[in-house]
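Run folding on both entries below.
>entry_1
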Amino acid sequence: MNNDECKKELMTGNEAIARGFYEAGGILASSYPGSPTVEILEAVKGYPEIYSEFSMNEKVALEVAIGGSFFGSRSMVSMKHVGVNIASDPLMSFTETSINGGFLLVTGDDPGLMSSQNEQDNRIFGKFANMPILDPSDSQETKEFTKAAFTLSEDLKTPVMLRITSRLCHGRGVVELCDRVEVAPKGIIKDVNSYCMLPPNSNKAQHFMKERIEKLTEFAYDTELNRLEKKEGADTLIVTSGLMYNNLKELNPNASILKLGLVYPLSKKKFEELAQEYKNIIVLEEMTAFIENEIKLMGIQCEGKKYFSFTAELDVADIEAGLISAGVIAPKENSKVLKERIAVPARPPLFCSGCPHRPIFDVLKKVKAKTVFGDIGCYSMAFLPPFEQSVSIISMGASLGIIKGARKAMTLQGPEQPLVSVIGDGTFFHSGISGFMNLLNQKKDNENITVLILNNSTTAMTGGQQNAGSGIYHQGDYMNVNIKKLLEVIGFDRVREIDQYDYKTAKEAIEEEIAYNGLSVIIAMGPCALRYKIVKPHFFVKPEICIACKSCIKTNCPPLRMKKYEGIDKMKSSIDKNMCVGCSVCAQVCPVNAIRNSELEDETNDK
């Protein structure tokens, strides 16, 4: 079909990127799951013409896509903003090379930290890596920019960054669906001067990158990726990009708007012309003053963060308040910024019903583990009430290096105490193996370190994607790496596996290893209840036996709550059978055997 015959479909920004990659003739897509970009690869999986994989981490994912590009195939790698930190080592060398097959790096930035440990602005990373940066504003544009990125990549021999933010990743818009254009691969080019990045070649590559940015700057002068919307008589120009453009349009300010699709590099010639035409230039952007600083580096006066927050998302009310402060619009009685915002009740995150992590943290709390270093994953929620166990959460795999450093400092300066760290199996495979090996570096027998590996056999926090050990519970997964055997081969001599649902045995094992004056590892086994759809006969409470001690409630399982029973004055425990997956932990912690299995006993008294 031609463009006039394109069908239309409602798509998220993530789905639109996948569609754009398909229509552009994309061949290879790799990723590591992380919000807000995880659904890109999930959507790509729907196109059989494309090979796709969730790699072990972002560095490996980038390298897989580089391999596809080296062969001459159009390739894409996607990751959340902090994932680029992991991938930066190969990225900073890859951007020195000449592109064979078109290459796109999609980064999902997270203004407001909805699902992240920091709020870094990867436009800065894109500039650092000498890459052009595209910043779309809606789902249709996201698809079109994805396609345009491959043309730009191949024309100027450069990798391209497509920067998208959380709300655009997940928001929906109408997208036109067009035909796929097949692009034949060129094959691997044997040019060591261009692709072997050792000092002599890298020195030459610095000039290649400089020339490439200069060509991109010329391209930026009149590219259709940027759009100037003039308002007659206006003496103010508002420069913006991405989702901010749509929020700004709702206000219809008395100002012209320069909507940037290519946010780096910018054309100095274009902005010098605009500075002659407009008295005031205001930059509207989320997070850092990236565009603002780029314009100021040209010697052109503008303002931005003087009026708008440097952090969090900017909604219509925030933008209106900033423009009122800038004198661009006048406050009105019915102003959006003056309207009372609806307060949304806070809802703290919870472990899912039947989550195998819950009994472990309940045990750690009961044995009064003094210091527990956390990591990135579902179990990071353990720093919240009621468990309040983790004392630090920094980055993927960081708990291992942190516990090592804390232990060595404690050995030298005291006082002595047991140290515990917790890491998941997904994080173990992502970036934990090297940390484990480093625990053996200058190990002393009397240094008390206990590491808990919570093995639920999936990358749970991002939606249950497979990891290297998922084959334990799901035969359809490609890999089944045995963590215990791997650690033993590395050199660990005290590694034990426990069943996370066997509460008594798990508690005894954790107490024993914390008391052990040395290095030990516990692998707590239990499938993710959500991914593997664990549903066993539900449990119920016999209120006439329950003593309302709340031991079950303290396990923090969602189906459990206190309630009033007919004919009983005191509130007793209860279980919502529609939520219970039958993990049995509540029954195991009940001191009076008031919680029973519905398959084994009549629950007619639980009214």
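>entry_2
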Amino acid sequence: MQAQFNQASAYHKSGQLDQAEAIYRELLVSEPGHPALLARMATLMQQKHQPGEALVYIEQAIKASSGDPQLLHQGFQIASQAGRNDLAERWLRPILEQQPENGELIEQLAGVLIGNHKEKEALSLLKEAIKTKPQSASAYNLKGLAMSRLGDSEKGYKNFQKSVKLNPGQLGAVKNLLTYGKGKKEPILDQLIPQLEQKLRQKGLPAVAMMNMAYVVSMYYEKKKVAKKAFEFLKMGNDINRRSYQYAHSDTVNHFEQIKQAWNGELRDAMKEKGIADASPIFILGMPRSGTTLIEQILSSHSKVEAEGEILDLKAAFEPESKGLFSRDTSDKVSANIRAAKNYIESVRQRNQAEFFTDKLPYNFIMIGLIALAMPNTKIIHCTRDPVETCFSIYKQNFSGTHPYKNDLKELGAYYNEYQSLMTHWNELLPGRIYEANYETMVDNSEAEIARLLEHCGLEMESACLGFHKNKRAVRTASVAQVRQPIYKDAKKASSAFTEMLKPLIDTLNGKAD
């Protein structure tokens, strides 16, 4: 084994990842629980930009090693990269227990807690971190983020200002100043952004640093209404991001086709009166950046509704039942749908006992069949927005986690078209079951649309829903700055200055692209 391991390590070190992977896999057949092998495979999968596979291997390595601190830290890094803050928290806490005075670990845990909707606990940690290290720019940035998400925008913004003054090179804080500083002039940004622009033009930086820097510079120029420069750096960031992973649109087409075939008229008829009665979930779904956060902010302002945000409980209930859900046997599919729904409700109910709760994970649109048939009394709110505006807004976001279709304008348009095709399938299969909440209509006639939305959900009008921007609940998405303000019309035609640059996207959406 040692000779093979050494050979695989040599391949790995020299960048011959496929050769290294072949040997590691061969060795794992004979020693499936070997922590070092599993950890190497996790690293290799991370290098091949397959974060899901990397997580599987590192989780096995951690279990096999009984919590080795080095593997726990590797697991934390992989989980953070994959957007799995739940695992990142699980693996970081025991390391911090062993090193309670480690300020860097404290800040890392605070960042993970914010990602896990535990802003108050994060603020408590950050208070102690700042006492110990009062010049920590990253601690002030995290404190500002936690405060902003909890609704204290002014104090949050002051923390971003302090962070940037302490360390102007901290891109996260610069981004937050731009995100939360609507209408505010920041002289420090006027000095800093040209310096970042110069670094980008010189190149030579690591790819990830260049990518993050490009998104920030683009945000600045868009705020300044300098469309040409804004798009130049936006495209730079997306192009760098796209080169870091493999994606084939045909995989999306095949996946959505499997979904359509699995949830069909035969299954719908077989599941009549067999679903679970629970009516507490309100699913808010659609493409990212289509207004889902706005709708959740309105509904969660109601006294009977509690916001859960972008939770993964439905996905977690779906995946273990996938064999049954896609079975050719209709009775197997019925049973699997019911089990998944029950597991979902039980999972959420462990932490939430409200009469109604919102689940606003946008990609739940893929699982509308499961939702509608297995939970027939739930409400499904499909958020829509002008296709170009939706896609352009997605293209502008430097999302965490995996959104592999979003960095190329043609692929983005093609994905959107597949999403629309799937929604057509759901509406034909489930006529009248899905409520459409259109962003532009909401902006143009908010009071009437809010009343209509509440009526659909069986909720009486409450004045707090009209003043949703005053809702102090935690908001954790890219729309947090917008939903802290009354409805405004700026975003209705945000793409208008970029029409020519977005031609590949527009042509694809219109079916004109190759």
